[in-house]
Write a structure and sequence with these properties.
By secondary structure, the chain is α+β, with helices and mostly antiparallel strands. The protein is built from twelve helices and 22 strands. The strands form four sheets. Strands 3, 4, 5, 10, 11, 12, 15, 16, 17, 18 and 19 form an eleven-stranded antiparallel sheet that branches. Strands 6, 7, 13, 14, 20, 21 and 22 form a seven-stranded mixed sheet that branches. A two-stranded antiparallel sheet has the order 1-2. Helix 3 packs across helix 8 and helix 10 packs antiparallel against helix 11.
Protein backbone atom coordinates (compact mmCIF):
# COMPACT_ATOMS: atom_id res chain seq x y z
CA UNK A 1 0.00 0.00 0.00
CA UNK A 2 2.84 2.40 0.92
CA UNK A 3 4.52 1.63 -2.37
CA UNK A 4 1.29 2.33 -4.22
CA UNK A 5 0.79 5.73 -2.53
CA UNK A 6 4.42 6.56 -3.16
CA UNK A 7 4.11 5.73 -6.87
CA UNK A 8 0.86 7.67 -7.11
CA UNK A 9 2.45 10.69 -5.45
CA UNK A 10 5.37 10.57 -7.84
CA UNK A 11 2.95 10.41 -10.81
CA UNK A 12 1.00 13.44 -9.57
CA UNK A 13 4.22 15.32 -8.97
CA UNK A 14 5.39 14.56 -12.51
CA UNK A 15 2.06 15.77 -14.01
CA UNK A 16 2.18 19.03 -12.06
CA UNK A 17 5.77 19.57 -13.12
CA UNK A 18 4.88 18.98 -16.77
CA UNK A 19 1.81 21.25 -16.49
CA UNK A 20 3.92 24.17 -15.25
CA UNK A 21 6.87 23.37 -17.50
CA UNK A 22 4.99 23.75 -20.81
CA UNK A 23 4.09 27.45 -20.35
CA UNK A 24 7.55 28.12 -18.99
CA UNK A 25 9.18 26.63 -22.09
CA UNK A 26 6.78 28.53 -24.39
CA UNK A 27 7.54 31.87 -22.76
CA UNK A 28 11.26 31.04 -22.75
CA UNK A 29 11.08 30.46 -26.50
CA UNK A 30 9.09 33.68 -26.84
CA UNK A 31 11.75 35.62 -24.92
CA UNK A 32 14.49 34.01 -27.00
CA UNK A 33 12.68 34.96 -30.25
CA UNK A 34 12.25 38.57 -29.15
CA UNK A 35 15.90 38.69 -28.05
CA UNK A 36 17.03 37.42 -31.43
CA UNK A 37 14.87 39.98 -33.22
CA UNK A 38 16.29 42.78 -31.08
CA UNK A 39 19.81 41.49 -31.62
CA UNK A 40 19.35 41.46 -35.41
CA UNK A 41 18.05 45.03 -35.25
CA UNK A 42 21.01 46.04 -33.08
CA UNK A 43 23.40 44.47 -35.60
CA UNK A 44 21.89 46.62 -38.33
CA UNK A 45 22.24 49.76 -36.19
CA UNK A 46 25.89 49.08 -35.27
CA UNK A 47 26.75 47.86 -38.79
CA UNK A 48 29.66 49.50 -40.61
CA UNK A 49 29.64 50.97 -44.10
CA UNK A 50 32.02 50.33 -46.96
CA UNK A 51 33.41 53.24 -48.95
CA UNK A 52 34.97 52.53 -52.36
CA UNK A 53 37.51 55.07 -53.59
CA UNK A 54 36.58 55.00 -57.28
CA UNK A 55 38.61 58.08 -58.18
CA UNK A 56 41.94 56.59 -57.09
CA UNK A 57 41.10 53.41 -58.96
CA UNK A 58 42.83 51.39 -56.29
CA UNK A 59 39.71 49.65 -55.08
CA UNK A 60 40.71 50.27 -51.50
CA UNK A 61 38.07 49.58 -48.91
CA UNK A 62 37.72 51.72 -45.84
CA UNK A 63 35.60 50.36 -43.06
CA UNK A 64 34.31 52.54 -40.27
CA UNK A 65 34.45 50.06 -37.42
CA UNK A 66 31.75 49.83 -34.77
CA UNK A 67 32.21 49.30 -31.08
CA UNK A 68 30.84 45.79 -31.17
CA UNK A 69 32.96 42.98 -32.60
CA UNK A 70 29.88 41.32 -34.05
CA UNK A 71 29.20 44.47 -36.07
CA UNK A 72 32.21 43.61 -38.28
CA UNK A 73 30.47 40.43 -39.39
CA UNK A 74 27.37 42.45 -40.25
CA UNK A 75 29.59 44.93 -42.14
CA UNK A 76 30.90 42.12 -44.33
CA UNK A 77 27.37 41.22 -45.28
CA UNK A 78 26.69 44.83 -46.21
CA UNK A 79 29.98 44.91 -48.18
CA UNK A 80 29.03 41.82 -50.17
CA UNK A 81 25.56 43.22 -50.98
CA UNK A 82 27.04 46.61 -51.95
CA UNK A 83 29.66 45.01 -54.23
CA UNK A 84 27.05 42.93 -56.03
CA UNK A 85 24.97 46.07 -56.48
CA UNK A 86 27.93 47.91 -58.06
CA UNK A 87 28.49 45.05 -60.52
CA UNK A 88 24.86 44.81 -61.58
CA UNK A 89 24.15 45.10 -65.34
CA UNK A 90 22.78 48.29 -66.83
CA UNK A 91 19.02 48.72 -67.33
CA UNK A 92 17.56 46.96 -70.37
CA UNK A 93 15.04 48.40 -72.80
CA UNK A 94 12.09 46.06 -73.02
CA UNK A 95 10.13 47.92 -75.69
CA UNK A 96 10.79 50.62 -78.28
CA UNK A 97 7.28 51.91 -78.92
CA UNK A 98 5.86 55.22 -77.71
CA UNK A 99 4.64 53.47 -74.55
CA UNK A 100 7.95 51.67 -73.95
CA UNK A 101 9.29 51.02 -70.48
CA UNK A 102 12.75 50.41 -69.05
CA UNK A 103 13.14 47.79 -66.37
CA UNK A 104 16.10 47.47 -64.03
CA UNK A 105 17.43 43.96 -63.48
CA UNK A 106 18.49 44.84 -59.94
CA UNK A 107 16.32 44.07 -56.97
CA UNK A 108 16.77 44.99 -53.34
CA UNK A 109 15.54 42.87 -50.47
CA UNK A 110 15.05 43.89 -46.85
CA UNK A 111 13.97 41.69 -43.96
CA UNK A 112 12.27 42.86 -40.77
CA UNK A 113 11.20 40.84 -37.75
CA UNK A 114 8.51 41.58 -35.20
CA UNK A 115 8.23 39.72 -31.93
CA UNK A 116 5.12 38.55 -30.12
CA UNK A 117 4.73 41.61 -27.93
CA UNK A 118 5.20 43.92 -30.92
CA UNK A 119 2.48 42.08 -32.81
CA UNK A 120 0.22 42.14 -29.74
CA UNK A 121 0.66 45.89 -29.45
CA UNK A 122 -0.22 46.35 -33.12
CA UNK A 123 -3.31 44.16 -32.72
CA UNK A 124 -4.65 46.40 -29.94
CA UNK A 125 -4.10 49.35 -32.26
CA UNK A 126 -6.21 47.56 -34.86
CA UNK A 127 -8.96 47.09 -32.27
CA UNK A 128 -9.03 50.82 -31.52
CA UNK A 129 -8.98 51.73 -35.21
CA UNK A 130 -11.81 49.34 -36.01
CA UNK A 131 -13.91 50.35 -33.01
CA UNK A 132 -13.62 54.13 -33.34
CA UNK A 133 -13.01 54.63 -37.09
CA UNK A 134 -14.05 51.75 -39.35
CA UNK A 135 -17.32 50.75 -37.66
CA UNK A 136 -18.71 54.30 -37.15
CA UNK A 137 -17.60 55.43 -40.60
CA UNK A 138 -19.08 52.35 -42.31
CA UNK A 139 -22.45 52.75 -40.59
CA UNK A 140 -22.50 56.46 -41.50
CA UNK A 141 -21.63 55.64 -45.12
CA UNK A 142 -24.36 52.99 -45.35
CA UNK A 143 -26.92 55.32 -43.78
CA UNK A 144 -26.20 58.35 -45.97
CA UNK A 145 -25.88 56.27 -49.14
CA UNK A 146 -29.23 54.54 -48.67
CA UNK A 147 -30.91 57.82 -47.78
CA UNK A 148 -29.43 59.52 -50.84
CA UNK A 149 -30.62 56.70 -53.11
CA UNK A 150 -34.12 56.87 -51.64
CA UNK A 151 -34.22 60.62 -52.35
CA UNK A 152 -32.95 60.13 -55.89
CA UNK A 153 -35.56 57.51 -56.73
CA UNK A 154 -38.28 59.80 -55.40
CA UNK A 155 -37.00 62.74 -57.48
CA UNK A 156 -36.80 60.67 -60.67
CA UNK A 157 -40.27 59.24 -60.11
CA UNK A 158 -41.80 62.71 -59.63
CA UNK A 159 -39.71 64.26 -62.39
CA UNK A 160 -40.95 61.83 -65.03
CA UNK A 161 -44.50 63.07 -64.52
CA UNK A 162 -43.59 66.79 -64.35
CA UNK A 163 -41.13 67.11 -67.26
CA UNK A 164 -42.07 69.55 -70.03
CA UNK A 165 -40.54 69.25 -73.51
CA UNK A 166 -39.41 72.64 -74.85
CA UNK A 167 -38.12 73.65 -78.28
CA UNK A 168 -34.65 75.16 -77.92
CA UNK A 169 -35.38 77.61 -80.75
CA UNK A 170 -38.31 79.31 -78.97
CA UNK A 171 -37.83 83.03 -78.46
CA UNK A 172 -39.98 83.42 -75.33
CA UNK A 173 -39.29 80.80 -72.68
CA UNK A 174 -39.97 82.75 -69.48
CA UNK A 175 -43.26 80.90 -68.94
CA UNK A 176 -41.31 77.67 -68.19
CA UNK A 177 -39.35 79.15 -65.29
CA UNK A 178 -39.43 76.91 -62.20
CA UNK A 179 -40.31 73.77 -64.19
CA UNK A 180 -38.33 70.67 -65.13
CA UNK A 181 -37.66 71.06 -68.88
CA UNK A 182 -36.30 68.70 -71.52
CA UNK A 183 -34.54 70.06 -74.63
CA UNK A 184 -32.75 68.09 -77.36
CA UNK A 185 -33.16 70.31 -80.43
CA UNK A 186 -30.39 72.85 -79.80
CA UNK A 187 -26.65 73.20 -80.37
CA UNK A 188 -23.99 74.25 -77.88
CA UNK A 189 -22.14 77.39 -79.00
CA UNK A 190 -18.97 78.61 -77.27
CA UNK A 191 -18.78 82.42 -77.40
CA UNK A 192 -15.47 82.93 -75.51
CA UNK A 193 -11.89 82.00 -76.44
CA UNK A 194 -10.35 78.93 -74.81
CA UNK A 195 -6.56 78.62 -74.30
CA UNK A 196 -4.40 76.06 -72.51
CA UNK A 197 -2.74 77.47 -69.39
CA UNK A 198 0.59 75.61 -69.74
CA UNK A 199 0.78 75.89 -73.55
CA UNK A 200 -0.61 79.39 -74.36
CA UNK A 201 -0.15 78.93 -78.11
CA UNK A 202 -2.79 76.17 -78.04
CA UNK A 203 -6.02 78.17 -78.17
CA UNK A 204 -9.29 78.63 -80.05
CA UNK A 205 -11.13 81.95 -80.28
CA UNK A 206 -14.56 80.27 -80.60
CA UNK A 207 -16.23 76.96 -81.27
CA UNK A 208 -14.50 75.10 -78.42
CA UNK A 209 -16.53 74.25 -75.31
CA UNK A 210 -13.82 72.42 -73.35
CA UNK A 211 -10.07 71.84 -73.74
CA UNK A 212 -7.79 69.42 -71.86
CA UNK A 213 -4.05 68.72 -71.79
CA UNK A 214 -2.32 65.80 -70.05
CA UNK A 215 1.43 66.09 -69.35
CA UNK A 216 3.42 62.97 -68.45
CA UNK A 217 7.08 62.22 -67.67
CA UNK A 218 9.16 59.08 -68.20
CA UNK A 219 10.24 58.20 -64.66
CA UNK A 220 11.55 55.43 -62.47
CA UNK A 221 8.88 53.75 -60.37
CA UNK A 222 9.49 51.55 -57.36
CA UNK A 223 7.50 48.34 -56.88
CA UNK A 224 7.28 46.59 -53.53
CA UNK A 225 6.43 42.95 -52.94
CA UNK A 226 6.05 41.84 -49.33
CA UNK A 227 5.93 38.31 -48.00
CA UNK A 228 5.20 37.70 -44.31
CA UNK A 229 5.81 34.37 -42.60
CA UNK A 230 5.00 33.43 -39.02
CA UNK A 231 7.73 32.00 -36.84
CA UNK A 232 7.25 28.39 -35.74
CA UNK A 233 8.14 29.28 -32.17
CA UNK A 234 7.62 32.48 -30.19
CA UNK A 235 4.59 34.05 -31.91
CA UNK A 236 6.68 36.46 -34.00
CA UNK A 237 6.70 37.04 -37.74
CA UNK A 238 9.27 37.88 -40.40
CA UNK A 239 8.51 40.16 -43.36
CA UNK A 240 10.65 40.10 -46.50
CA UNK A 241 10.24 43.07 -48.85
CA UNK A 242 11.58 42.95 -52.41
CA UNK A 243 12.03 46.23 -54.29
CA UNK A 244 12.15 46.34 -58.10
CA UNK A 245 12.30 49.31 -60.48
CA UNK A 246 10.81 50.10 -63.89
CA UNK A 247 10.52 53.23 -66.01
CA UNK A 248 6.98 54.23 -66.93
CA UNK A 249 5.02 57.20 -68.21
CA UNK A 250 3.37 58.88 -65.23
CA UNK A 251 1.22 62.01 -64.88
CA UNK A 252 2.41 62.38 -61.27
CA UNK A 253 5.92 63.41 -60.30
CA UNK A 254 7.63 60.50 -58.51
CA UNK A 255 10.08 61.40 -55.76
CA UNK A 256 13.10 59.11 -56.15
CA UNK A 257 14.52 60.28 -52.80
CA UNK A 258 12.12 57.89 -51.08
CA UNK A 259 13.37 54.84 -53.02
CA UNK A 260 15.04 52.02 -51.17
CA UNK A 261 17.83 52.00 -53.77
CA UNK A 262 18.37 55.52 -55.09
CA UNK A 263 21.62 54.98 -57.02
CA UNK A 264 20.86 54.61 -60.71
CA UNK A 265 17.15 55.42 -60.26
CA UNK A 266 17.14 59.22 -59.99
CA UNK A 267 14.17 61.04 -61.53
CA UNK A 268 15.24 64.27 -63.24
CA UNK A 269 12.73 65.87 -65.61
CA UNK A 270 13.82 67.40 -68.90
CA UNK A 271 11.54 70.41 -68.23
CA UNK A 272 11.54 70.78 -64.42
CA UNK A 273 9.21 73.81 -64.35
CA UNK A 274 6.44 72.12 -66.35
CA UNK A 275 3.71 70.80 -64.05
CA UNK A 276 2.56 67.24 -64.64
CA UNK A 277 -1.03 66.03 -64.66
CA UNK A 278 -4.29 66.91 -66.35
CA UNK A 279 -5.64 70.44 -66.72
CA UNK A 280 -8.98 71.45 -68.20
CA UNK A 281 -10.21 74.81 -69.46
CA UNK A 282 -13.90 75.47 -70.06
CA UNK A 283 -15.57 78.20 -72.05
CA UNK A 284 -17.11 80.77 -69.73
CA UNK A 285 -20.05 81.47 -72.03
CA UNK A 286 -21.86 78.58 -73.73
CA UNK A 287 -25.13 79.33 -75.51
CA UNK A 288 -27.77 76.72 -76.26
CA UNK A 289 -30.49 77.33 -78.84
CA UNK A 290 -31.90 80.84 -79.05
CA UNK A 291 -32.44 81.94 -75.44
CA UNK A 292 -30.57 79.51 -73.17
CA UNK A 293 -27.13 79.71 -71.58
CA UNK A 294 -25.56 76.62 -70.04
CA UNK A 295 -23.92 77.03 -66.59
CA UNK A 296 -20.42 75.71 -66.04
CA UNK A 297 -21.67 72.94 -63.73
CA UNK A 298 -23.59 71.49 -66.68
CA UNK A 299 -20.75 72.09 -69.16
CA UNK A 300 -18.50 69.83 -67.07
CA UNK A 301 -20.79 66.88 -67.86
CA UNK A 302 -19.86 66.91 -71.56
CA UNK A 303 -17.28 64.17 -72.14
CA UNK A 304 -17.19 63.56 -75.92
CA UNK A 305 -13.45 64.31 -76.12
CA UNK A 306 -11.57 64.12 -79.40
CA UNK A 307 -7.91 64.56 -80.31
CA UNK A 308 -6.81 68.16 -81.00
CA UNK A 309 -3.70 67.34 -83.04
CA UNK A 310 -5.29 68.76 -86.20
CA UNK A 311 -5.76 72.09 -84.47
CA UNK A 312 -2.39 72.15 -82.66
CA UNK A 313 -0.15 71.24 -85.61
CA UNK A 314 3.18 69.41 -85.86
CA UNK A 315 4.83 71.04 -82.81
CA UNK A 316 4.11 73.13 -79.75
CA UNK A 317 6.34 75.19 -77.45
CA UNK A 318 6.44 75.51 -73.68
CA UNK A 319 8.98 77.49 -71.63
CA UNK A 320 11.27 77.72 -74.65
CA UNK A 321 11.19 73.96 -75.33
CA UNK A 322 9.77 72.57 -78.57
CA UNK A 323 7.57 69.47 -78.29
CA UNK A 324 7.42 67.46 -81.52
CA UNK A 325 4.39 65.38 -82.51
CA UNK A 326 4.67 61.59 -82.79
CA UNK A 327 1.35 59.77 -83.04
CA UNK A 328 -1.17 61.43 -80.75
CA UNK A 329 1.49 62.82 -78.35
CA UNK A 330 3.99 65.68 -78.44
CA UNK A 331 7.43 64.72 -77.06
CA UNK A 332 10.40 66.58 -75.62
CA UNK A 333 13.09 65.73 -76.49
CA UNK A 334 11.68 64.63 -79.87
CA UNK A 335 11.02 60.90 -79.90
CA UNK A 336 13.73 58.92 -81.68
CA UNK A 337 13.11 55.24 -81.14
CA UNK A 338 12.76 54.92 -77.37
CA UNK A 339 11.99 57.71 -74.86
CA UNK A 340 14.83 59.05 -72.75
CA UNK A 341 14.72 59.06 -68.92
CA UNK A 342 13.02 62.21 -67.72
CA UNK A 343 11.44 62.82 -71.12
CA UNK A 344 8.13 64.67 -71.33
CA UNK A 345 5.05 64.21 -73.47
CA UNK A 346 1.70 65.98 -73.73
CA UNK A 347 -1.64 65.08 -75.27
CA UNK A 348 -4.31 67.62 -76.26
CA UNK A 349 -8.05 67.01 -76.64
CA UNK A 350 -11.13 69.21 -76.91
CA UNK A 351 -14.92 69.28 -77.21
CA UNK A 352 -16.32 71.35 -80.07
CA UNK A 353 -19.73 72.92 -80.57
CA UNK A 354 -22.44 70.43 -81.44
CA UNK A 355 -25.87 69.00 -80.64
CA UNK A 356 -26.69 68.36 -77.00
CA UNK A 357 -29.59 67.37 -74.74
CA UNK A 358 -30.56 69.13 -71.50
CA UNK A 359 -32.72 67.88 -68.61
CA UNK A 360 -32.82 70.37 -65.71
CA UNK A 361 -34.87 73.00 -63.90
CA UNK A 362 -35.32 76.16 -65.95
CA UNK A 363 -34.45 79.46 -64.24
CA UNK A 364 -33.89 83.08 -65.22
CA UNK A 365 -30.39 83.96 -66.47
CA UNK A 366 -29.32 86.99 -64.45
CA UNK A 367 -26.26 87.69 -66.61
CA UNK A 368 -28.11 87.82 -69.94
CA UNK A 369 -31.37 89.78 -69.86
CA UNK A 370 -34.33 88.05 -71.45
CA UNK A 371 -32.59 84.66 -71.47
CA UNK A 372 -32.85 81.51 -69.37
CA UNK A 373 -30.45 79.15 -67.68
CA UNK A 374 -30.65 75.91 -65.71
CA UNK A 375 -30.61 74.79 -62.05
CA UNK A 376 -30.74 71.38 -60.37
CA UNK A 377 -34.18 69.86 -59.87
CA UNK A 378 -34.38 68.67 -56.24
CA UNK A 379 -36.88 67.27 -53.79
CA UNK A 380 -39.04 69.85 -51.96
CA UNK A 381 -41.89 69.79 -49.46
CA UNK A 382 -45.16 69.52 -51.36
CA UNK A 383 -47.48 69.69 -48.39
CA UNK A 384 -49.88 67.10 -47.08
CA UNK A 385 -50.83 64.65 -49.87
CA UNK A 386 -49.20 66.95 -52.44
CA UNK A 387 -51.78 69.71 -52.03
CA UNK A 388 -49.76 72.72 -53.19
CA UNK A 389 -50.49 75.32 -55.86
CA UNK A 390 -48.31 75.58 -58.97
CA UNK A 391 -46.85 79.00 -58.18
CA UNK A 392 -45.71 78.00 -54.70
CA UNK A 393 -44.21 74.78 -56.03
CA UNK A 394 -42.18 76.69 -58.63
CA UNK A 395 -40.84 79.08 -56.01
CA UNK A 396 -39.80 76.25 -53.74
CA UNK A 397 -38.09 74.41 -56.60
CA UNK A 398 -36.14 77.53 -57.56
CA UNK A 399 -35.10 78.21 -53.97
CA UNK A 400 -33.96 74.60 -53.54
CA UNK A 401 -32.12 74.64 -56.88
CA UNK A 402 -30.13 77.77 -55.95
CA UNK A 403 -28.76 76.21 -52.76
CA UNK A 404 -25.01 75.72 -52.61
CA UNK A 405 -23.36 72.48 -51.44
CA UNK A 406 -22.79 74.12 -48.06
CA UNK A 407 -26.52 74.83 -47.76
CA UNK A 408 -27.36 71.23 -48.68
CA UNK A 409 -24.91 69.99 -46.07
CA UNK A 410 -26.42 72.20 -43.37
CA UNK A 411 -29.90 70.92 -44.22
CA UNK A 412 -28.83 67.27 -44.22
CA UNK A 413 -27.10 67.36 -40.82
CA UNK A 414 -30.45 68.02 -39.12
CA UNK A 415 -31.81 64.67 -40.35
CA UNK A 416 -28.69 62.63 -39.69
CA UNK A 417 -28.97 59.38 -37.80
CA UNK A 418 -26.37 60.41 -35.25
CA UNK A 419 -24.48 63.65 -34.80
CA UNK A 420 -21.03 62.18 -35.17
CA UNK A 421 -17.93 63.30 -37.00
CA UNK A 422 -18.10 60.35 -39.39
CA UNK A 423 -21.73 60.96 -40.32
CA UNK A 424 -21.20 64.68 -40.88
CA UNK A 425 -18.10 64.01 -42.98
CA UNK A 426 -19.98 61.60 -45.24
CA UNK A 427 -22.89 64.04 -45.55
CA UNK A 428 -20.47 66.81 -46.57
CA UNK A 429 -18.88 64.64 -49.27
CA UNK A 430 -22.22 63.61 -50.77
CA UNK A 431 -23.53 67.20 -50.68
CA UNK A 432 -20.52 68.45 -52.66
CA UNK A 433 -19.97 65.62 -55.13
CA UNK A 434 -23.16 63.55 -55.47
CA UNK A 435 -26.32 65.33 -54.29
CA UNK A 436 -29.64 63.67 -55.25
CA UNK A 437 -30.94 65.79 -58.13
CA UNK A 438 -31.95 65.88 -61.81
CA UNK A 439 -29.36 68.01 -63.58
CA UNK A 440 -27.92 66.55 -66.76
CA UNK A 441 -26.35 67.47 -70.10
CA UNK A 442 -25.71 64.84 -72.78
CA UNK A 443 -23.79 65.20 -76.04
CA UNK A 444 -25.91 64.47 -79.10
CA UNK A 445 -29.65 64.06 -79.37
CA UNK A 446 -31.02 61.80 -76.61
CA UNK A 447 -34.66 60.95 -75.86
CA UNK A 448 -36.31 61.85 -72.56
CA UNK A 449 -36.66 58.20 -71.62
CA UNK A 450 -32.98 57.69 -72.40
CA UNK A 451 -31.98 60.56 -70.10
CA UNK A 452 -33.94 59.19 -67.15
CA UNK A 453 -32.63 55.69 -67.89
CA UNK A 454 -29.03 56.97 -67.77
CA UNK A 455 -29.69 58.72 -64.47
CA UNK A 456 -31.21 55.61 -62.95
CA UNK A 457 -28.29 53.48 -64.13
CA UNK A 458 -25.73 55.94 -62.74
CA UNK A 459 -27.63 56.09 -59.44
CA UNK A 460 -27.78 52.30 -59.19
CA UNK A 461 -24.05 51.92 -59.89
CA UNK A 462 -23.19 54.53 -57.29
CA UNK A 463 -25.57 52.99 -54.77
CA UNK A 464 -24.04 49.54 -55.07
CA UNK A 465 -20.48 50.85 -55.15
CA UNK A 466 -20.89 52.68 -51.84
CA UNK A 467 -23.03 49.88 -50.42
CA UNK A 468 -20.28 47.32 -51.06
CA UNK A 469 -17.67 49.73 -49.71
CA UNK A 470 -19.73 50.20 -46.54
CA UNK A 471 -20.13 46.43 -46.13
CA UNK A 472 -16.37 45.88 -46.48
CA UNK A 473 -15.50 48.62 -44.00
CA UNK A 474 -18.01 47.25 -41.50
CA UNK A 475 -16.72 43.70 -41.99
CA UNK A 476 -13.07 44.62 -41.44
CA UNK A 477 -14.05 46.82 -38.51
CA UNK A 478 -15.81 43.96 -36.72
CA UNK A 479 -13.10 41.48 -37.73
CA UNK A 480 -10.34 43.71 -36.31
CA UNK A 481 -11.85 43.41 -32.82
CA UNK A 482 -10.56 39.82 -32.64
CA UNK A 483 -6.97 40.57 -33.70
CA UNK A 484 -5.41 40.09 -30.21
CA UNK A 485 -6.97 36.61 -30.01
CA UNK A 486 -5.36 35.55 -33.30
CA UNK A 487 -1.97 36.83 -32.18
CA UNK A 488 -2.27 35.04 -28.82
CA UNK A 489 -2.90 31.70 -30.56
CA UNK A 490 0.37 32.09 -32.48
CA UNK A 491 2.38 31.72 -29.25
CA UNK A 492 1.64 27.98 -29.20
CA UNK A 493 4.76 26.26 -30.56
CA UNK A 494 4.49 24.79 -34.11
CA UNK A 495 0.66 24.45 -34.01
CA UNK A 496 -0.13 28.08 -33.24
CA UNK A 497 -0.37 29.35 -36.80
CA UNK A 498 -2.73 26.51 -37.74
CA UNK A 499 -5.00 27.13 -34.75
CA UNK A 500 -4.95 30.85 -35.53
CA UNK A 501 -5.90 30.12 -39.15
CA UNK A 502 -8.88 28.04 -38.08
CA UNK A 503 -10.00 30.72 -35.64
CA UNK A 504 -9.78 33.35 -38.38
CA UNK A 505 -12.05 31.29 -40.63
CA UNK A 506 -14.71 30.83 -37.93
CA UNK A 507 -14.58 34.47 -36.84
CA UNK A 508 -14.64 35.61 -40.48
CA UNK A 509 -17.87 33.72 -41.16
CA UNK A 510 -19.46 35.10 -37.99
CA UNK A 511 -18.40 38.66 -38.90
CA UNK A 512 -19.86 38.19 -42.38
CA UNK A 513 -23.27 37.29 -40.95
CA UNK A 514 -23.18 40.14 -38.43
CA UNK A 515 -22.22 42.59 -41.18
CA UNK A 516 -25.14 41.57 -43.40
CA UNK A 517 -27.62 41.92 -40.55
CA UNK A 518 -26.33 45.36 -39.49
CA UNK A 519 -26.20 46.64 -43.08
CA UNK A 520 -29.77 45.48 -43.75
CA UNK A 521 -30.97 47.11 -40.53
CA UNK A 522 -29.33 50.45 -41.43
CA UNK A 523 -30.79 50.32 -44.95
CA UNK A 524 -34.27 49.66 -43.60
CA UNK A 525 -34.14 52.63 -41.24
CA UNK A 526 -32.84 54.92 -44.01
CA UNK A 527 -35.63 53.96 -46.45
CA UNK A 528 -38.50 54.33 -43.97
CA UNK A 529 -38.85 58.08 -44.47
CA UNK A 530 -39.08 58.12 -48.28
CA UNK A 531 -40.29 54.58 -49.12
CA UNK A 532 -41.94 53.04 -46.05
CA UNK A 533 -42.74 49.76 -47.80
CA UNK A 534 -39.14 49.23 -48.91
CA UNK A 535 -37.87 50.19 -45.45
CA UNK A 536 -40.27 47.80 -43.74
CA UNK A 537 -39.12 45.01 -46.07
CA UNK A 538 -35.48 45.57 -45.13
CA UNK A 539 -36.34 45.62 -41.41
CA UNK A 540 -38.36 42.42 -41.74
CA UNK A 541 -35.43 40.65 -43.39
CA UNK A 542 -33.05 41.88 -40.70
CA UNK A 543 -35.44 40.77 -37.93
CA UNK A 544 -35.90 37.34 -39.47
CA UNK A 545 -32.12 36.92 -39.70
CA UNK A 546 -31.68 37.85 -36.03
CA UNK A 547 -34.42 35.43 -34.92
CA UNK A 548 -32.88 32.63 -37.00
CA UNK A 549 -29.46 33.22 -35.47
CA UNK A 550 -30.89 33.20 -31.94
CA UNK A 551 -32.79 29.96 -32.57
CA UNK A 552 -29.76 28.21 -34.08
CA UNK A 553 -27.50 29.39 -31.27
CA UNK A 554 -29.99 28.28 -28.61
CA UNK A 555 -30.31 24.77 -30.01
Amino acid sequence: MALTWKASGQCITMRVAVFFAIPTIAFAKLHQSDSQSARRLQDRQFGTSLVLDAKAGLGQEFIRKGDDAEALISAKRVTTASSSSELQPKPKITSSSSSSSISSSSTTTSTTSKGFFGRLKSSFGQVLFGLFVLIPFSIALLWVNEQRNARLESIISVGKSETITVDANETYVGKYSGQLVFLNSGLTQSLDPVADQRFPTVKMDSGCVRMMSVVEAYQWKEHRHQKTEKDNVGGGETTTTTFSYTMEWSAVRIDSNSFQQQAGHENKLQVPDLHLGSQQVNSKTVKYGECYYIPEALTLQLNNWQSATDMVGESVECLGNKFQMSGKYYYFPPLQGSPVPGGMRVNFSYILDGPATVLALQAEDRQHQGSASFLPYRLVNRGCCGNIDDETLRERLLIEGEKTPEDLYNDSTNSCLCFTICCNLVQCCFAHFAPPQVFGLWSGKVTKAGCFSDMQLAGMLMKWAFRILGWLLLYFGVYSLFSPIFVTFDIIPFLGKYISGGAKFVVGMACFIVTLVLATLVAGLAWLRFHPIVGATFLTIAGAAVVSIVIVTHH
